[in-house]
């Protein structure tokens, strides 16, 4: 049977656990805590100092005199055990009593708020999430200082006991999406949930798809925008990133910096990203298909150049393309795993040396080298890393399909891809909305970023309870001060 004395005995086997007896006349106080989790100054001056100054005090008076705001009384074995591992000091009033005073003395150790590392921006906020859940909640609270902001806290992981916070706006967020998200997090049955990326994979609608169905970010301003739009944000203690849902396919090619730039510039940049993704996926497969099956479609202007570049290459186009694609992936992985300065050097020098050597050794044509290099650069324009990795992998099925059936193979592979995307959902919301199902009103912030005067309505596919952002007539009726 679980009991407080048994808990003290079990924890005493840990070297960093401190437990001792403090006498108050005839009453013994048993004080226990983990010195690796508690703040020593707070413990010595505010908690233990309070006990030394009161030699004869009742249980209720002892609870009131401890000058710490976050404290409680409990006799529940599970609660006390959980608080121990959160940095609480547990004070048991007498050995026979099961009531304990739980005082928060957790040491807030970790890095300070810094600039975003993977989502750096020239315009806008320079703050990024850190590994402390309380600090991250503060970064969101100060951006959304409204009473309707709700934070629900859950615990996941049978071993990690990770704190997970679900953030939404009461009266705005669709309750069905909220219930679905909370239910899936509560149903997570895994021993170690160490990061939000693990949680993303566990609660997505289709975990077998290479397409992400939630968007991860390290920027609190992006999270604040998503929450105010009606989406649900999830943070985890110990993770420097958050994620939000439901999302559609097109949001993965939108960066929050678009909203800091003039709408014409932001729209052009957004269209460039869309075009870059299509180029990255189809450039190499089209090269294989045209060279292998459709040589007659090559213009007479480019034909001599292509023939001269391939005249000494002993491999068929499929082998040539796979060699270059694998070399690009090797350079990318090497640059990502090495320290920053060395990784940049490897990427630049390795790309130049290997590319030049491959052309001179007749392992590949210089025409293909340009195509593969441009495809690699185009894939970097995707702002969300998980979608960028998906685009990189997506090229290979198209390359093999192009080798088997030429342009017909590319079309068949494209149809299969679209069919897969049509079946995907994010928290039950269609993945290709607003194009499928088609919603004319929601096209305004998909391919282009309109001016803010057009933002009077939130996305209808999010099914928010307050679809109107502002009164457009009232906003357009502003007058100059001299009028």
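Sequence proposed for the structure above (483 residues):
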């Amino acid at each position: 049977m679980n009991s407080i004395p048994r808990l003290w005995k079990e924890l005493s086997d840990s070297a960093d656990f401190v437990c001792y007896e403090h006498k108050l006349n005839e009453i013994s106080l048993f004080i226990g805590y983990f010195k690796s989790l508690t703040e020593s100054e707070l413990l010595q001056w505010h908690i233990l100092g309070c006990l030394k100054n009161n030699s004869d005090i009742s249980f209720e008076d002892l609870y009131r005199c401890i000058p710490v705001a976050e404290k409680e009384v409990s006799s529940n074995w599970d609660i006390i055990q959980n608080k121990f591992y959160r940095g609480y000091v547990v004070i048991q009033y007498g050995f026979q009593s099961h009531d304990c005073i739980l005082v928060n003395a957790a040491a807030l150790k970790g890095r300070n708020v810094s600039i975003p590392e993977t989502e750096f921006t020239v315009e806008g906020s320079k703050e990024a999430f850190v590994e402390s859940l309380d600090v991250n909640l503060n970064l969101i609270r100060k951006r959304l200082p409204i009473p309707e902001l709700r934070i629900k806290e859950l615990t996941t992981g049978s071993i990690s006991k990770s704190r997970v916070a679900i953030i939404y706006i009461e009266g705005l967020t669709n309750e069905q999406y909220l219930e679905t998200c909370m239910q899936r997090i509560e149903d997570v049955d895994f021993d170690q949930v160490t990061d939000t990326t693990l949680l993303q994979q566990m609660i997505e609608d289709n975990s077998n798809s290479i397409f992400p169905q939630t968007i991860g970010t390290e920027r609190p301003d992006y999270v604040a925008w998503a929450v105010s739009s009606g989406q649900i944000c999830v943070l985890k203690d110990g993770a420097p990133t958050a994620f939000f849902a439901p999302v559609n396919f097109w949001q993965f090619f939108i960066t929050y910096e678009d909203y800091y730039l003039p709408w014409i510039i932001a729209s052009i940049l957004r269209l460039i990203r869309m075009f870059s993704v299509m180029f990255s996926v189809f450039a190499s497969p089209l090269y294989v298909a045209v060279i292998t099956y459709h040589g007659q479609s090559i213009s007479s202007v480019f034909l001599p150049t292509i023939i001269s570049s391939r005249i000494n290459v002993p491999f068929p186009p499929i082998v040539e393309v796979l060699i270059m694609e694998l070399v690009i992936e090797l350079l990318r992985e090497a640059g990502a795993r090495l320290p920053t300065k060395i990784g940049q050097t490897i990427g630049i020098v390795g790309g130049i040396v290997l590319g030049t050597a491959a052309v001179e050794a007749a392992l590949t044509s210089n025409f293909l080298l340009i195509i593969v290099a441009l495809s690699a650069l185009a894939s970097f324009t995707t702002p969300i890393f998980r979608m960028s990795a998906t685009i990189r992998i997506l090229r290979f099925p198209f390359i093999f399909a192009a080798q088997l059936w030429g342009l017909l193979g590319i079309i068949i592979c494209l149809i299969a891809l679209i069919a897969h995307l049509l079946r995907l959902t994010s928290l039950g919301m269609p993945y290709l909305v607003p194009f499928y199902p088609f919603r004319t009103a929601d096209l305004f912030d998909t391919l282009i970023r309109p001016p803010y005067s057009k933002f009077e309505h939130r996305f209808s596919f999010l099914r928010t309870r307050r679809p109107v952002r502002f009164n457009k007539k009232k906003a357009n009726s502003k007058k100059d001060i001299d009028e």
